[in-house]
Structures are given as C-alpha cells and as structure tokens.
Amino acid sequence: MSTSDSNSNSNLAKCPTLKGKENYTEWAEIMKSNLLTTGCWDIVSGVEIAPPRPEPFYTSRNRPTGVRSLRQTEAEYGRRNRAGIYTRNEESCKERVQEIKDQVNGYESHTQLKEKAKNLMMGSISKDIWQQRVNKEDPAALWEELQNDYRKAGVPELGKELAKYADMNHITYPNPQKLLNALKTQHSKIEVTLNAAVFHPKYLSWRYIHEMSKFKPLFDIPLAQYDILEEYPPSDEVKRALEAHLVNHPNVPKKPTVEDTPLTASANANVAQSNNKKRKRNENKPADQSSSTEKPTCPDCDKAHHGQCWVKNPEKMPQNLRKKLAKRHKQLEELLKGKNNAAQ
Question: What is the pLDDT of residues 301-312, one digit of tens each?
Fold first, then answer.
C-alpha cells in the first residue's frame, strides 16, 4: 500500500459492518461519506460512466511512447508510399501517441477507483450478506442492490420520527434556541431514515417561522420581513437570522403584571372582583384535592397524561382519535408509496 493510500484511509470514518436491515441506514450514511472522501462516489452513484476499453488495448506498460514505437505497433502509421516516404507525418503520429496515452490513463484511473470502491464496500459487509450478492464486481450495481434490499428498513421508524417532528412546539421546547435546533436535527434525521427528501426544501423555513411566531412578542419584528416575500429563503438562512435576533433578546418578555401597569378605578374594581371569585373557589375546594395540575408520568409510554394509557389499552382509545390516527397512517403510506414509485 502506498503512502498516499495509507493517509487517505486514515481520514475515513469507522464504518460498521453491514448486518442487514437493522443497521443499513447507518452503514449507508457512513459508507457514502467514505466513498466521497476517496473520490469513488461518482462511480458508485453512476455519475461517472466507465470509459470504453481502448482498442487496440494498451496499458501503461505496452503503449507506444513515441513516433518510432507507434510506427512499429500500428501498421497504419508505419505504411509507406512507393517513394518510401511514410504516408503519416510525424505530427499526426504524435497526436495518436497522446491520444493513446490519454485513453490508457483514463481507463486505468477509472478501473483503480472502481476496485477501490468495491474493496471499501466488501470490507464492511458481513460474510453472509456478501455471499448473497449478485453484483460483486460492479460497485454501482452492488450499491443499488443493497439499497433495494435494505433501504425499506427505515420505513417503519419513519412514522415515529414524523410524530416526534409534528409534536415539536413552544410547549415541548419553551426555549426558542433549543426548539430551532431540535427542528433542524429531527428534519435531518427523517431524511436520513428514509434516505430521501421528504418535505419541500422550503418547508423547514416555514416551520421555523411558524413556531417562532408563537413566542410573542419576541419575534414580531424579525418575522415581519417574511410577510412581504413571495417565497421563503433557505432554512439555514432563516435559522441564522432568528438566532442573531436571539443574541440581543435571549429571554422571552413576560406579560406585564398588575403592579407594573397603572390601572384605572374600574380596572382595579375588576381585578378585586376577580380575586374575590378565586378566593371563594379555593375556600369551597376540598382539602384533600391537590392544587397542582401537573400530569403524572405513565410507566407504560413514558408520557405525562391523566387516565388510562392508550398504548397499553388501545381498545379504550376514543373512536374519533382512532379515525384521525388511521387517516394519518394512510397519508403516510401514500407518501411512501409515491416516493418508492418515483425512485423506481
């Protein structure tokens, strides 16, 4: 192994051994990164097409290196007329020598990268899976074969990741910065799970703006600029703009209290009347009733809720909620079906 090959391999990420559908998503992500680092990804992805085999076939060892050797190897350039003069001049011979050199270099370079990609993939696939492969010599066909066999492994998990993404809001993440980071991370995780883009490229931009608008009036000023645009900017640009605003406004402003706001006589009377009603309700409240509204954490689903757990007892779930979940599941299946048809 050359020094350059040794240095390039030292820069590669440690790729797990592909064992099947349970770790295909992780394997494919890391393997693609390593193929990009070594310059092999264009061959595996099919962007770089294999050059034709030179005809006649020359290698870097036996190709002509000059006019004299060319005239000896190719009869066309060694032919003479009756006067004994070559029918092909030296300039045309030099052009042919350079053409042969370029063909040999291109063919051998592609072949070396192809073998390198094959070795990288072969070295990170379990023996059982490797023996089942049909396309062992062509890394592009091998990648496609593995993709067709195991890419669907991410589909069952996609529903869970989409549900997490839909539940992210200002209540689950009271800190704006943490909510922005969580949205970006979960969005990337969904695309990695499915190994494809699920949403429109500008959807994440809209989601940032939509969720930050709930932190009123913290983002009223920076969000106003997006109301006059015909389309949203890229999501990273929106996220940077919102984070820049957070630097100068780290805390969400609190609503003004009664003590901070001057009240008129009628307003004071309304506040006093409201306090009296609250006091009466508290006096009539049973002593053993807890004043806390905090929901207990369910041991079955690890979520805070009152009453019976629907994860443990799905048959007790309300009918309208069952219909809603079934509708969402059907939409997800149609989405995945459309993605699979488009990929085919």
Answer: 777 777 777 667
